[in-house]
Amino acid sequence: MKNRCFWVTDSKLYQDYHDNEWGTPVYDDQTLFEFLILETFQAGLSWITILNKRENFRKAFDDFDYHKIAAYSENKYNSLLQDAGIIRNKLKIKSAISNAQLFLKIQKEYGSFSKFIWNYVDGKPILNQFTKREEVPATTDLSDKISKDLKKLGFKFVGSTVVYAYMQAVGMVNDHTSDCFKYQT
Known about the structure:
Shape: globular
Order of helices and strands: HHHHHHHEHHE
Keywords: DNA damage, DNA repair, Hydrolase, Metal-binding, Zinc
Catalytic activity: Hydrolysis of alkylated DNA, releasing 3-methyladenine
InterPro entries: Adenine_glyco, DNA-3mA_glycosylase, DNA_glycosylase, Tag
Protein name: DNA-3-methyladenine glycosylase I
EC number: 3.2.2.20
Structural class: mainly alpha
């Protein structure tokens, strides 16, 4: 049996996510946007809730195509509010649309969102060396800074806790604990 990080349950979905995605560096704008949307919808909820609805989100949000999402009409917004397969939070749905518009703006300015976001860690993951659950932070000075910068640009639902979870998910930080089979030194 594989030893995994403390937060992984016996859910196959959770285990697959942990083993194949979480903490793996992502440099592709499409995937970075998908995680941005998923993390913003997760605010105040459990990650397993989002994972269980991920395919529904994918369908509802046009495979996370930020070009399409940025151009969503009022009709599309209203249909999303009726979609029981996703989190039907008015503000989060509105933020997905405006965040997609801002994502495009950053791409235009920096060449890619990846260049913009990975610049905060000089293009390579921060490898933490945590041994216990208590050591893994919910926020850091860096997530505070990124959160503040994103909010200044107009992004919504990007508080420091959401940003740190995003950093973990896309591998900007590697927080696999030392007893986890995915741990790297």
